[in-house]
Amino acid sequence: MDFENIDDLRVALACRQSGTLTAAAARLRITPAAASAALKRLEARVGARLFERSTRSMRITPQGELYAGYAQRALELLEEARGQLAADTDAQRLAGGIRLDAPSDLTRHVLLPWLDAFMDRHPGVELHLAVSDARRDLARGQVDIALRYGDLRDARLVARRLRDTRRLACAAPAYLARHPAPAHPSDLARHECLAYLLDGQPSRRWRFSRTPGPDGHPAQTPAETVEVRVGGRRTADDAEIAHRWALAGHGVLYKSALDLAPSLASGALVPLLPGWRGEPLALHALLPSHRFVPARVRRLVDFLAERFAALPVAD
Question: Beta strands 205-210 and 224-229: pairing type?
Answer without folding.
Answer: antiparallel
